[in-house]
Design brief:
By secondary structure, the protein is an all-alpha fold. The chain contains four helices and no strands. Helix 2 crosses helix 3.
Amino acid sequence: MGDFDCNGNGVGDGDDMVGGVSSDLNGNGIPDECEPIGDLNCDGVVNAFDIEAFLVALFDPDNYAAQFPDCDINNADLNGDGSIDAFDIEPFLDLLFG
């Protein structure tokens, strides 16, 4: 289906999704494991439009799930410790401002 292979497994992304190797919960054609971490509003990029979504994910996860049902809240775990907490703020700001 697709020639791009974002996860580097030798199979095109489209074929990964059709074959069930990868999921695409938000339906944007990008395998979920290849979505940019920190992209909390699911528009495909990490930018200032993610700030509000990050804060909602950080302080009100249930509201985040309601506002962004097709997004993965785990993209807010920017330090990779398995929790979305204050320790993710600095890595998020690093993504935004370098």
